[in-house]
Amino acid sequence: MKRFYKSAAVAEIDGAFHVQLDGRAIRTPAKNLFALPTAGLAELIAGEWNAQGDEVDRGRMPLNRMAGTAIDGLAGKRAETVSAVAKYAETDMVCYWADRPQSLVEQQQAVWRPLVDWVAERHGAVLQVASGVLPIRQDEAALAALRNAVAGFDNFRLVALSVATGTAGSLVIGLALVEGRLDAGAAFEAAQLDETYQIAEWGEDEIAEQRRAQLRIEFGHVERFVRALQP
Fold first, then answer.
1. What is the pTM of this model?
2. Residue/partner pairs of 108-117 with CB below 8 Å, 24 or more apart
């Protein structure tokens, strides 16, 4: 799509912050006004619009995309999103530790154990951990606590959590990033711990390098989005 505007700016209207193009309000795919809860997030999204060249590439506007999804109520699928995100807890990666080599086991214990302990303290969800690949049957009380935690997020933070959890393959890591327990770099390291270990042992191919670079970027988008939601 060709760029059809000169500049994007933010206007505060009735306590909300609207992104406008040449003074005209933009709307979401569902035709809702693009009204945001904080000036910080609105400024970042206006910056994405201003950074476009002669062609508008919405793929280069990740914060705009996440905010639009939140404003549109997750396309009417909030309950389904909550369920899908919460389901990661049933087989959360940080609960499955290696049984060897010892150096990998020690790294997992050093990085993942504090996160398991944190989610127990923060959300009352005591998750079981085990070595090997046999499935763990998590306590229903722990799973219910995490479902409640996910359901308690507003739409903006739920979208961020959905992206973070899917990127990490772990609800625990997703929660830790969105709630500020981890920054984007630490979230990447926790999510990629096993792969990073294998790369150190055997090296990394170009495709894996590109994929990991994109994961870093995604975690960074989530961190910027959530931080901008702070008043």
1. 0.95
2. 108/193, 108/194, 111/189, 111/190, 111/193, 112/190, 112/193, 115/172, 115/173, 115/176, 115/181, 115/182, 115/190, 116/172
